[in-house]
Amino acid sequence: MLQDGLVSSSCSLSGSKLLRCVLFLPLLFIFLTIHASASRLQKVLGPGPSPGPAPTPEPKPPCPSPGRRNTTFPAIFAFGDSIVDTGNNDYILTLIRANFLPYGMDFPHGTPTGRFCNGKIPADFIAEFLGVKPILPPYLRPGLTKEDLLTGVSFASGGSGFDPLTPFVVRAIPMSDQLTYFQEYIEKVKGFAGKEKADHIVSKSLALVIAGSDDLANTYYGSHAEEFLYDIDSYTSYMASSAASFAMQLYESGARKIGFIGVSPIGCIPIQRTARGGIDRNCAAEINVAAQLFNTKLSTSLHSLGETLQNATLVYIDIYSIFTHMIQNPKEYGFEEIGRGCCGTGLIELGPLCNKFTSLLCKNVSSYMFWDSYHPTERAYRILSKKFVETDLGPFYDN
């Protein structure tokens, strides 16, 4: 069993992998952020702030209306990074935390829970919109009830990624350990509910994976840790291969309804505009191109793998397109500010830099697309999650 706070040594201790771990062990996320903001200020490649086109998604069947759905999800499972981490990082030794105000100020009872947002995040909204439960608890939270476990949890960890070096540097929970926790979860459910019920829950529930942003923004373009070993084409191939391997391991653990959400145009998040967008803080085109490259490879890899898996639905979900549309048409969504976060100056603050002691807040958080310099606001997450539930779940309503 994994112990809270223990991060497995996911980096291989041989050859170039050893070199990577030794060289970059001392790096911490907060210093990567400051370094990126101070030293990588430059003009964006190409004109204008446009995030660029998204990869063309494969056609998918429409999502049935609620009254005609013939498949239900007994539980929701979330894996990945801070977009779906509902508080696991509170229980490990890492600086990548959000268990302090003003994070969580709009969460029920105004409680900071470790969610990297002013309120709920996609893991919560998806569980709520699907009628499973109003919030998705973190797996590592002490005192989870049997009902909590039966209806799903989040295994995600802020700062994690498909590249094992990404969580290693900031001491987040690697994807491999998230999978181990999932297998531990299954054994727990078998223990009090029986094997038949546990197998039913795992196979019929929705397993969502969202990662890759930290690999690109922090490990590759932030610390430049992987630029010594890979060009961006090779690195995104490595990421996609790692993602496909994770999908296969979920399948081998019993999951049969698996969705991978792609990377958004992260070159347009406030901190990347600050670090790489030049004086005008345009979107960082280079990073957006990398995100699109990864998304295309992820989609292709998952499609190929899905054709080999029996009785399983493995789906790539495009987030790049809707995110881009929101950035290019903010007024259509009721946003007045899309270039800065609500917390502090909105240029670089996130994690420890966004706190109630040193950071002022915007007057109207609902008019901002971003909460801190990296993560969207609760309102933006609600819009994105609603779109996902209404238009992207069709393949899972199979029989």
UniProtKB/TrEMBL annotation:
Which superkingdom, per the lineage? Eukaryota
Tell me which InterPro entries the record gives.
GDSL, GDSL_lipolytic_enzyme, Lipase_GDSL_AS, SGNH_hydro_sf, SGNH_plant_lipase-like
Supply the CDD domains for this chain: SGNH_plant_lipase_like
Q: Where is this region: Disordered?
A: 45-67
One GO biological process from the UniProt record? lipid metabolic process
UniProt biased composition (Pro residues) = 48-65
Which GO-annotated molecular functions does the record name? lipase activity
Q: Which family does it belong to?
A: Belongs to the 'GDSL' lipolytic enzyme family.
Question: What protein name applies here?
Answer: Uncharacterized protein
**Taxonomic source organism:** Microthlaspi erraticum
The taxonomic lineage of its organism, from the top, reads: Eukaryota, Viridiplantae, Streptophyta, Embryophyta, Tracheophyta
